Amino acid sequence: MDILQLLDELGIDRAVFMGTSLGGLVTMIIATIAPQRMAGVLLNDVGPELNLTGIDRIKSYVGKPVVFAEWADAVAELRSRHQSVLPGYTDEQWDRYSRRVLRKTDRGIEFDYDMRIAEPFEAANSGETPDIWPFYRALAGRPVLVLRGEHSDLLTDSALQRMAKEIPDVEAVTVAGVGHAPDLDEPEAVSAIDRLLERVLKS
């Protein structure tokens, strides 16, 4: 995998893997093929059991190229898409979020990610749902932190509670006032990440 090749090129034997959404699914896959590379793991609002409501919401916009003429138009569009899962965002936070996921090009303002990211979401709710729990169980043997946004429509509270019990050395934290997914700068998230790193150093 590209991630493992990058670690090899950087000369990093073990790392703390932090995966948000699709990145968390990739992290669980890596745990099945190279668990020795993982010193610790953070799964940010994602797990082995995903709510189809959240998947359908993400599918409604992800992987669909849009070009905005002005930053104000982009901010307004992202606010309308995500207001329900990020109800506490201020104008400043919406602007910062927009500039994090978009970039200025010769054509205008466009999303700054590979549009093929939509392919896993297309597969996620078509046909038989695969059992991802074995991939999650592969994380056992190292400190694990699972974050869930209080208003998340992708990772349910019941799934979070099962994840906390399924393998040892897991801390499950709900981040208040946000949905999918926490920005990781919230006080609860920062404190939980600090605790994860402390556990990694002691393990």
* Coarse structural class: alpha/beta
* CATH level 4 superfamily of the largest domain: Alpha/Beta hydrolase fold, catalytic domain
The biggest beta sheet is recorded as: 4 strands, parallel
Unreliable segments of 5+ consecutive residues: none
How far is the first residue's CA from the last residue's CA? Answer: 26 Å
Helix content: 40-55%
In CATH, the architecture of the largest domain is 3-Layer(aba) Sandwich
Strand content: 15-25%
* CATH topology call of the largest domain: Rossmann fold
pLDDT averaged residue by residue: 92
SS summary, helix count: 9
Q: Return Rg in Å.
A: 17 Å
What would you call the shape? globular
CATH class of the largest domain: Alpha Beta
Q: Largest sheet, order of strands side by side?
A: 1-2-6-7
Order of helices and strands: HEHEHEHHEEHHEHEH
**Count of structural domains:** 2
Overall number of strands: 7
